[in-house]
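Final report, section 2: Outcomes. Of the targets proposed, Putative gamma-glutamylcyclotransferase is the one most frequently requested by collaborating groups, and we therefore present its record in full.
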Amino acid sequence: MTQSVFVYGTLMHPVILERVIASKQKVLEPAVLKDYFRFCVSQTDYPAVIAETGQQVEGILIKNLNNKELERLDLFEGDEYQRISVNILMKSKEIVKGHVYVWIAVSLNYMKHISQKGKDRLLREPWHLEEFSQQKLHAWIASPIEFAAIDGLDESSNCGSHFGRALKLDDASSCGSRSAP
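The predicted structure is given below as tokens.
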């Protein structure tokens, strides 16, 4: 049985998505997640969503994911997120069932940085895929940290420890006001 997942951040970029799910053969459709808000996550390059009545998040629905691809997505998203079932509004106005990864981080302590409560890390600032693509994508692709949980997964059934995505305190995030091109 296949599943669908709504993505709203770095996974909307085809290079990131292909590396995470290890497949190019997916149906991708623009979609909207109603009653959620996309937040920037402090000191990172990726966003998070949490439920917020009256708001909406634009993203992409990935269709026909198999169990292995869902496992890869779960590992990539790590302990900061939980995959839940939601209703997703398609461009055609059809409502379909799918999954989304929502922010659940309560307390984090990656790389010995000072831990913060999860919601304290959410910034009500815009997150832009275009800005991420122009300013951060190259570093992400080259980084062993961003893909640590899934690298080697295909070579071995035991993927080892999951480190999740580390906080990035040494550079600016993709959050906030847009930079000039």
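Residues 136 and 142 are 10 Å apart (CA to CA).
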